[in-house]
Amino acid sequence: MTTLVTVDNNGEVFTHFPDLTGNYATLCQLDGADENPGVNQVELDVVGKVDCRDCIALFYFVRLLRVSDIDKRHKRPKGAAQ
Ligand SMILES: [Zn+2]
User: Fold this and answer.
1) How far is ligand 1, taken at its centre, from the CA of residue 26, in Å?
2) pLDDT, tens digit, for every residue of 17-63?
3) Ligand 1: distance of its center to the CA of 53 in Å?
4) What's the 10 CA to ligand 1 centre distance in angstroms?
5) From ligand 1's centre to the CA of 7, what distance in Å?
6) Residue 79 binned pLDDT confidence (cut-offs 50, 70, 90)
7) What spacing in Å lies between the alpha carbon of 1 and ligand 1's midpoint?
8) Among 57, 68, 47, 62, which residue's Cα sits nearest to residue 32?
9) CA 61 to CA 45: how far, in whole Å?
10) CA–CA separation, 39 vs 56, rounded Å?
């Protein structure tokens, strides 16, 4: 199950897809709790539908990719969980 992430980024609040690498909070690479000076990002408990344009663009881009482009050593069997 995907856990969506809502982030207040300098006063702009959007809901995002999560990042799967663990380096960021969101697929569009927001930290969600960035401690760098001048960056004011906070993860909120409020979660709605994804309305981040970058996350939505990434989602639709990935849907255009083909499994046949993945090296066979990294392919997962059909129906396998991630
Ligand atoms: Zn996003």
Assistant:
1) 6
2) 999 888 889 999 998 777 777 778 888 888 789 999 999 999 999 99
3) 7
4) 14
5) 9
6) confident
7) 18
8) 47
9) 28
10) 23
